[in-house]
């Protein structure tokens, strides 16, 4: 049997080396990030290094929190990395150039020094920054729309690009705070931007992510939904920047508004996850004749907790290789149910649907066979099917065997 790359099947891509365009894209993003850091370093003195360290410090934790939304159907790591680097590179450097030009040649000449900075921060910066951050999401919609299976995916990609942007922007804020007020001012700004509102940029851009996700999974709203999402991102961003003119009261009001929006987004993702579970229970029983799935297996697939227990059982009876095979089986089954969601909504081209379905079924079969071929450490029935049947118990060969 030919070798199969499970990651390539799950991500819906051709197996092999990373594409040249991806490598060039990451290179370009990195160059932009380095240019932005170089400009900070040239103007920041010793405060630059303090700002850089503090800006990077919470990023692993924040990325981990964003990825908790990505557990049932993980996104390709290369796409997540590119989104983060786009935010940290192209979006930051582009915003730096355009915001500076806007201040020098538009807002300050028209409104004066003080009011010009306020107008730029409240109206100019949100338009420029959210457009640049959202560009990578529009690119995914155009080039990799099949990778976006729902609102959670749009929020995750938006969160990654927002975290990249916020990290680089915080370098500048921390550096300036240190230079203007020393360690005490730096501490205050770090508490505000790094601890109290670390998700502001991801939250703003999540509006664009929701619009892009809707367009990717529905036949209607292909243009209106992403544009409305982008407008929502600009409005949230502008409200936050503009609230600084009203002191602590203004910030508190907008903070409560942003917190409410965050809770709504979490609610949307939770509802969608339950809908994904229902689709697993709806669509996978149709494949019982293949021998790859039984009603008991469907019950195992319908929750993260039961999946985790299944992987633990697989590792106990067959070692790490069996646990990896179980994980591939679970992810392929989830992708199969999401594929049917696309078909149900009329956004799956028939030839692509058939090819994708067969590839996922083949992966489920290979994962199952790899598991069954692994010498068990002790005979044991799956805990979710103690009396059988289950695709993970020896049985008659399936049509895919």
TrEMBL record:
Superkingdom of the organism of origin: Bacteria
Annotated signal sequence range: none
TM annotation in the entry: 20-42, 48-67, 79-106, 118-143, 155-175, 195-216, 223-240, 252-271
UniProt feature, compositional bias: Pro residues: 377-386
Keywords on record: Membrane, Transmembrane, Transmembrane helix
InterPro entries on file: PrsW
GO molecular function, one term: peptidase activity
Region named Disordered: 375-401
Database matches in PANTHER family: PROTEASE PRSW
Protein name: PrsW family intramembrane metalloprotease
